[in-house]
Amino acid sequence: MRPINMKSKLTLLLIITTFGASGIMSAQEATRDTSFSTSNFSLDEVVVTGTRSKTDVRHLSQTVSVIPRLSIEKSLQSSLLPVLTEQIPGLFTTSRGVMGYGVSNGAAGGISLRGLSGGNARLMVLIDGYPQYAGIFGHPIADAYQTLLADKVEVLRGPASVLYGSNAMGGVINIVTRKMHEDGIRTDVRAGYGSYNTLETELTNRIRKGRFSSVISGSYNRTDGHRENMPFEQYGGYAKLGYELASHWNTYADVNVTHFNATYPGPVSASLLEGDQRITRGMASFVVENNYDRTSGGFSFFYNWGDHWINDGYTPSAGEQPQDGRFNSFDDMMGISLYQSARFFPGNRITFGFDWFRYGGEAWTEYVKGEKAGTREDIVDKHEDEVAGYVDFRQDIGTWLTFNAGLRIDHHSRIGTEWVPQAGLAFHLFHNMELKASASKGFRYPILREMYMFPPQNPDLKPESMWNYEIAFSQRLLEGRLSYGVNVFYIDGKNLIMTLPNPNGSGMLNQNSGEIDNAGVELQAAYRISQEWSADANYSFLHMENPVVAAPEHKLYAGVNFSKGRWDVSTGVQYIAGLYTSVGDNPQTENFVLWNMCGQFRATKWLDLWVRGENLLAQRYEINAGYPMPRATVMGGINVNF
After folding, report:
1. Cβ-Cβ contacts under 8 Å for 125 (sequence gap 6 or more)
2. In Å, what is the CA distance from 229 to each residue of 226, 262, 273, 313, 627?
3. What's the CA angle centered on 236, arms 230 and 241, to 5 degrees?
4. How many CB atoms lie within 10 A of CB 257?
5. Cα separation, 489 vs 540, whole angstroms
């Protein structure tokens, strides 16, 4: 690929932005004289991810996208990641089968946003604002993020290191957990069966009575997989108990545990045997919150853990024999978070916060055969501490401008201290227009694997860092029925950790030698056509000077929804182009179109019938090199509500 210089890059971004905006404005003119009475897309959504306190998204200078519970339910998915891949421009998730992601070699479930990957600890997943990643490897565990958890999902596109520290350099996905919003008792059961002997089940009970509330969920999912030797089985459970201590104080505690058994079949050109994985992930937290008119805040303690057992398997066609050892690891992460937000005078909000994290774990090889049978060989046993303080400042200037600024001072027990600033402006213009500009720094500390595990390890690594510069424009039209937004961003990163030849000896060594030079455009639009019909679309263009796997150059989704009486039907088309499945000396790219459809019919007051079809065009494509995705698949089932 021929490199594009900065002048050409900015010109290209301007052309795409102008084209996208003019196309949406043309849609506005075409519908100006039409009158409807409802809306389904609001720019004044209240969010908590871009700031610790509940905030109107219009007052934030960074971009936060929200996927509400209704959209999650209508997707009829057991995992959150397919929903996010469709609905969030610039976000993409790898997969290799009909269900399940797995870990270790060839793993799927890699989440990337604007070319920054959670697999490299550059994108963070949160649950209620608390980090969720493997303490040794630093990456999210995709199979742990199930729809049964989420009341809504908020995605901040761009660095979030001021509030969340290391690993949030490229953005965050915050899963806001389920709750009962009104007094009563409600139980929901969902069950489905479909292609490749795939089974999905979920049971959720929610209670709210006076000051007490609870949510208890459980799920069981399994599939034979679309390839031989590719089964997947998952058990999940979530429980949350809450109590309002007083009119302005409440507390809750929750726990989530997911266990899955997966088999890694290897690429089709070199099938693998005995590539088995047994993974358990869990999280628990305890929270006390206060919420007054002029101040709000909270204290929380959280603990995450993971237990991994992996057989790397063997490839008979390459003359390999079964492995003598099994990889084992136990990782954990605990932390304390304290913050308080206050309004000292009209239009002002300032938040002070403190975080302490301790993360790490141990990994070892357990030999079950051969000369070392019955012995254990340690790989790593380390923990690191991170302590930080931060301030987030927001000030309204009249009714037309909001100024945002933040600063984090973050200290790592081995690496030292990192200063993380950000600043931005949000202009509230006429005709429901919003214009935002921001500059924010993101960073991440080296993870334990990079510093201490396997031959490329280097304990002298320094933090990675980047700056994200962004301009965003959005508008609501037709009394809120038509909404659109355009984002233009440029990412400049340095000190990326790469594995390169050792300059002081033989072999390879992890080194701070990489750079990020990414630029792109993101478009979103939603239109409530009538009481029954609505449409939404998003598009992202990403240019990378240094291409990476699982970050498509073009990503487009367009969907239509119909809801009337007992019927609820949705369909959408996703177009992916310039997706690298491998880079380096022999780069490979994929282009494909996916057509999905799902529908529900309310048979009785308490029973829904549903069906979901994916890849209905039966496309042949790969997301991970060597792993052809399934052709058309169909699931059907029931929802019971009482």
Report:
1. 111, 118, 131, 132, 133, 140, 145, 172, 173, 175
2. 9, 10, 8, 12, 13
3. 170
4. 17
5. 11
CB within 8 Å of 69: residues ≥ 6 apart: 150, 151, 152, 178
Q: What is the DSSP letter of 640?
A: E
**Parallel, antiparallel, or unpaired for β 567-582 and 130-131?**
unpaired
Contact 417, 409 (CB under 8 A): yes
Kindly tell me the burial class for residue 471, based on how many C-beta atoms sit within 10 Å of its own C-beta (0-12, 13-18, 19 or more).
Answer: middle
- Calpha distance 43→483 (Å, rounded): 8
> What would the two tokens of residue 609 be?
């019938």
| 318 vs 371: CA distance, rounded Å | 23
DSSP 545-595: SS--TT--SEEEEEEEEEEETTEEEEEEEEEEEEEEEE-SSS-EEEEEEEE
What does DSSP assign to residue 229? T
Q: What is the pLDDT of residue 60?
A: 86
Q: Report the pLDDT value the prediction gives residue 58, as an integer from 0 to 100.
A: 79
d(CA 304, CA 332): 5
Residue 375: CB atoms within 10 A of its CB come to 12
Check residue 611 and report its DSSP letter.
Answer: E
Structure tokens at 625: 């090199």
What lies within 8 Å, CB to CB, of 604 at 6+ separation is: none
- Which amino acid appears at position 158 of this protein? G
Q: How many residues does the chain have?
A: 642
Identity of the residue numbered 412: H
Q: pTM (2 decimals)?
A: 0.90
Residue 155: count of CB within 10 angstroms of its CB: 23
The single residue listed with the structure tokens 């201490």 is 452
Q: Specify the pLDDT at position 37.
A: 31
Phi-psi region of 511 (alpha: psi -120 to 50; beta: other; left: phi over 0): beta
pLDDT along the chain (642 residues), means of 10: 40 38 35 33 65 78 91 92 94 92 76 90 91 88 91 94 93 92 94 97 96 96 95 96 95 96 92 94 96 93 96 94 95 96 91 96 95 94 96 94 96 95 96 95 94 91 96 95 96 94 89 94 96 96 92 97 96 96 88 97 97 96 93 97 94
The Cα–Cα gap between 415 and 460 comes to 8
Q: What are phi and psi of 333, to 5 degrees?
A: -150, 125
Report residue 379 as tokens.
């790989």
Rounded Cα–Cα distance for residues 503 and 498 (Å): 13
Place of tokens 């399934």: 630
**Residue 104: per-residue pLDDT:** 66
Token pair of 629 as six digits: 């995705």
What is the tens place of the pLDDT at every residue in 110-122? Answer: 899 999 988 888 9
Provide φ and ψ at 178, rounded to 5°. Answer: -65, 155
